[in-house]
Design a protein that fits this description.
Layout lengths: L2 H11 L10 H6 L29 E5 L12 H4 L6 E4 L12 E4 L8 E4 L2 E2 L13 H4 L5 E8 L14 E7 L7 E9 L3 E9 L6 E13 L7 E15 L2 E15 L6 H5 L13 H8 L27 E18 L3 E25 L7 E25 L2 E21 L16 E23 L4 E18 L10 E6 L3 E11 L2 E11 L15 H6 L7 E12 L3 E13 L2 E4 L16 E4 L3 E12 L5 E14 L3 E3 L2 E3 L12 E11 L2 E10 L2 E2 L7 E2 L2 E11 L8 E9 L7 E4 L14 E3 L4 E9 L1
Parallel strand pairs: 4-7
Antiparallel strand pairs: 1-6, 2-3, 4-5, 6-7, 8-9, 8-38, 9-10, 10-11, 11-12, 12-13, 13-14, 14-15, 15-16, 16-17, 17-18, 18-19, 18-20, 20-21, 21-22, 22-23, 23-26, 24-25, 26-27, 27-30, 28-29, 30-31, 31-34, 32-33, 34-35, 35-38, 36-37
Length: 769
């Protein structure tokens, strides 16, 4: 039943006095015609339909105005949470804490979606990423122009090796054609301090550019209130020469994030609560607990306290450090009257370290300095460069496009231990490890070609899209010698000669249309710091011979309608996801060691089926007032049992982990005479974190609100604006991100939950000059 989501929508409708800015993209879309189907960019984002008018696939879009309900600095990914079929979770108000941020779409998790920024591939969005970076690091949030989410079908030209379940294309703002700048300061709960500055050159004979920067500091919302620091720089330039357009983009990011502790349902029952976190700064308590660990157990010194009864209930502290540099050059060239060539070249380099103060891993063993804790670090580096090219031309009724993408990625991941003599704040990179567990280099080569054709018939009432793509990703691992653990060296290739895609759209009338699409996609094998079939022992890799890449087949259809005061879309879909990969041992404990195949390894364990429907309804009854609603129903199930430890794991017919079956979002917004306000609600249904569905977390409804006033020109400034934002308005505490999935958890002791952030309030003062 959707009773609860509908109740939320009605409740929000009664709060019209608390609304914010109407969606500029939606306003333009009400009168948009067939020209709205042009390729999306920062230039065209505000002139196309927010629900994909004219597209032959399910498309949803957000624009600049959609950011106003959330505080400045909020990740573009979190803003997507209002869209149908989308579940975004994070344990911070900005959706930027990478260990705890996640997004699921139609049953697909974040690592099975595709992401780009202005066409630059961002990888698979995984924590400890091996092939990209998150949108929060790639782009200062204030410079986000908007995003396009293509559920299921995606786009043939998207540069991604992971887009099984859909694509998210982010777009940065273009430089202003007027000289000036913007500055803002945000302060709020937990010592939040964020400063943003941007300066635009304005138009200089077709050339324009901006430079911008952010410095942000805050504390954790849970004790011990350790610091979170972000420093970012963005620069963008555009040069228009006749019908040609040239561009350049540069981004740097320096991030230090203290990570929150994972929770279990058992911990919550014991009263530790959602505010439970790490031991720091209580060093003595952390040491006493570490003496209970198997590797450093000392019965006389072992002591738990304060409701803790397990070595895994807490650790001293944990942190993620990430440094990124991203650069790109692009060109959009007119080739006569009917053809264009788009070129993009990019380079991305990254280094990262993930720290965990590991109990049971001793420092200086056998000496007077011995402690039952050392720091475990996972170190990552990425050095990748690539090009994309797309040639489009008009030939009679045909709108043809052919393109290619090539990327070379040199990636390294290693795991080290560092001995310590006592506590300190680990917000800097560590060097000269005392132990090295493993060290692997990865050489990843990606080649992808596509061709597509859009044909129009019956006076443009009928649109037919057909196309194919041919991806090929070869990943080679080289394990370095001299480490404690032996890891694999070898090569895995994910490729397909032809992956078809087709779509059809039919206009019943100027304001009503039907659409249907079909597509096939495969995903590259996961590598590097994200784990995968190559980050295993040589024996495990050898036993994994014959692995098939994960593959999806998506069929969807829907209806859209448009009016002067409303827009609506409904879509239904059916997805088959084959060759699901899991790491397990299919043999019994007796058989292990007696047969070569009886070793823990990656195995294709069968299929997943996803079915569902999504509804979007946007009402604009009077000028300045907008009511946005989205409902979604999804049932994603495992289709096959599998064998682990010699026993059948009965998952066939069970709901996939972290997949809510029902979701609803509703936002009412008002923009008039300089005043803007908004109230957004999101209902996320029950989610499982075990494959057999014996454990779950309850559904939850959350609210966010924003209100502000633009004073207009004065004091020599173009505009001064003051805004107030509140996230998790009702201070609802709940299970946010889920991970560490397992077949079963009968006692609720699995550490699979990241807690939600409490209510937080932020004030921003912004000026344009």
């Amino acid at each position: 039943m959707l009773t609860r989501p509908l109740t939320i929508a009605v409740a929000i409708a009664l709060c019209a006095a608390n609304a914010h800015a109407a969606d500029a993209a939606a306003d333009a879309a009400a009168n948009a015609g067939p020209e709205a189907t042009v390729a999306l960019s920062a230039q065209t984002l505000d002139t196309v339909s927010v629900i994909g008018q004219g597209e032959t696939r399910q498309v949803q879009r957000i624009g600049t105005v959609d950011k106003q309900v959330l505080p400045p600095g909020t990740s573009g990914q979190k803003i997507l949470d209002r869209l149908p079929g989308v579940s975004v979770q994070s344990n911070d108000a900005f959706g930027a804490n990478e260990e705890s941020q996640s997004i699921t779409l139609r049953g697909f998790d974040k690592s099975r979606l595709g992401y780009t920024l202005d066409g630059i591939p961002l990888g698979d969005n995984s924590y400890g990423n091996y092939n990209g970076l998150s949108i929060a690091r790639a782009l200062i949030a204030e410079n986000l122009a908007g995003a396009e989410l293509s559920q299921g079908i995606g786009s043939l030209g998207v540069a991604s090796t992971s887009n099984l379940g859909g694509t998210i294309q982010y777009f940065s703002q273009d430089p202003s054609t007027e000289f000036g700048g913007r500055a803002s300061v945000t302060v709020g709960d937990d010592n939040q301090r964020r400063g943003y500055l941007r300066v635009d050159t304005g138009d200089l004979n077709g050339f324009s550019a901006y430079v911008s920067g952010v410095h942000q500091d805050s504390d954790m919302w849970a004790a011990p209130n350790q610091n979170q620091t972000t420093r970012q720089f963005n620069a963008k330039a555009v040069w228009n020469v006749g019908d040609h357009r040239f561009g350049a983009f540069a981004a740097t990011s320096r991030v230090s994030q203290a990570n929150y502790a994972y929770l279990s349902k058992d911990m919550l029952r014991r009263g530790l609560g959602y505010d439970w976190n790490i031991y720091a700064p209580d060093w003595d308590r952390a040491v006493a607990a570490a003496y209970c660990a198997p590797g450093t157990r000392d019965a006389q010194k072992c002591a738990f306290s304060g409701g803790v009864n397990s070595i895994d209930d807490a650790y001293y502290q944990s942190r993620a450090l990430r440094d990124d540099n991203l650069y790109a050059l692009d060109a959009d060239l007119a080739l006569g009257d009917t053809a264009r060539l788009k070129l993009l070249g990019y380079h991305h380099e990254n280094r990262g370290q993930g720290h965990w103060w590991a109990p049971g891993q001793p420092s200086y063993p056998g000496t007077a300095q011995a402690l039952p804790i050392s720091i475990r670090s996972t170190n990552y580096t990425i050095n990748r460069q690539g090009i994309t090219a797309a040639l489009s031309w008009q030939w009679g009724i045909h709108e043809l496009e052919a393109g290619l993408w090539y990327e070379r990625n040199d990636h390294n991941v290693e795991r080290n231990f560092y001995y310590i003599t006592g506590p300190f704040l680990d917000d800097a990179y560590l060097n000269h490890p005392d132990r090295r567990l493993f060290d692997q280099d990865f050489d990843i080569r990606t080649r992808q070609f596509y061709v597509q054709d859009r044909m129009r018939f019956l006076d443009d009432r009928l649109t037919v899209d057909v196309g194919i793509k041919s991806p090929n990703t070869r990943m080679t691992a080289n394990a370095k010698p001299g480490t404690e653990a032996s890891y694999a060296s070898g090569t895995l290739t994910a490729k397909e000669s032809v992956l078809p895609q087709a779509g059809i759209g039919f206009k019943l009338s100027p304001n009503q249309e039907l659409f249907a699409s079909y597509s096939e996609n495969i995903a590259a094998f996961v590598g590097g710091g994200s784990g995968g079939p190559l980050q295993v022992s040589p024996e495990s890799f050898a036993a994994s011979a014959g692995l098939e890449p994960e593959k999806s087949k998506t069929l969807e259809a829907g209806f859209r309608t448009f009016g002067e005061k409303y827009q609506a879309s409904i879509a239904a879909y059916h997805v088959m996801f084959d060759n699901r990969l899991l790491s397990l041992n299919p043999c019994t404990s007796i058989e292990v060691g007696t047969r070569p195949e009886c070793i823990t390894r990656f195995i294709n364990v069968g299929s997943v089926k996803s079915r569902g429907a999504e509804l979007t309804f946007i009402l604009k009854p009077v000028d300045g007032l907008q009511w946005y609603n989205a409902l979604s129903w999804n049932k994603t199930t495992y289709e096959d049992n599998y064998t682990s430890g010699g026993a059948i794991v009965p998952v066939a017919g069970k709901i996939t982990v972290d997949t809510p079956q029902r979701m609803a979002s509703s936002e009412i917004s008002w923009n008039r005479d300089g005043f803007f306000a908004s109230l957004r609600a999101k209902y996320t249904g029950k989610r499982y974190y075990t494959y057999t569905n014996d454990q779950s977390v309850a559904g939850v409804t959350t609210f966010d609100a924003g209100v502000g006033y633009s004073f207009g020109p004065g004091l020599g400034l173009r505009d001064v604006k003051v805004s107030l934002n509140a996230t998790n308005l009702t201070n609802k505490r709940y299970a946010g991100q889920l991970s560490a999935f397992a077949p079963t958890d009968p006692t609720g002791t699995r550490y699979a939950i990241h807690a939600s952030a409490p209510r937080q309030v932020f004030m921003t003062v912004a000026a344009e000059f």
